[in-house]
Amino acid sequence: MKSITVFCGSSFGSDAIFKDQAVLLGQTLAQQDIQLVYGGADVGLMGAVADGALQEGGKVIGVLPRFLQSKEIAHTRLTELIVVETMHERKTKMNELCDGVIVLPGGYGTLEEFFEMITWAQLGLHQKPIGILNIDGFYNDLIKLVQNMVEKGFLKQVNKEMLLISDSVNELLEKMRNYKAPAVGKWISKEEV
Fold it and tell me: I need a labelling partner for 173 at 20 to 30 A (CA). Which of 21, 32, 156, 165 fits?
């Protein structure tokens, strides 16, 4: 993996561990010579992960929609800032630039980005690993919901297993390096229900 996209909040959250782990992720990516691609802002966890990578001399590419330049405050020390017109263009560009995705805590926007990327993977539009850095159990309820989707017949177990989850940066990166995309399609036949 040469490049990883990170989706995360534009806030710091309620606990210092979120910022600390975002900085650690950025530092670790730089130390392992993995380029960081992220949303381009200098606020919240977004700014923290970028700062962590930059502190270690890493390459950081931000992708920011023009209309968010004033709200999210574009980071001024990036290797490169790509300005796009729409949120969809942002996700498309971030997907084009990466070999894998890591999701940190965040709000609606983070979840929307995560679900679009995992849906694209489920549909076979890419075969990139998608990891959740489950800091302080932040995503425990989401993981339970995904299991409920399997139990209620809305998601195949093999598609659930596409989610790589860890509370450790290094363990998550190792899972991503070893990831093999499933060979089965998304669609569930009547016989499989």
Answer: 156
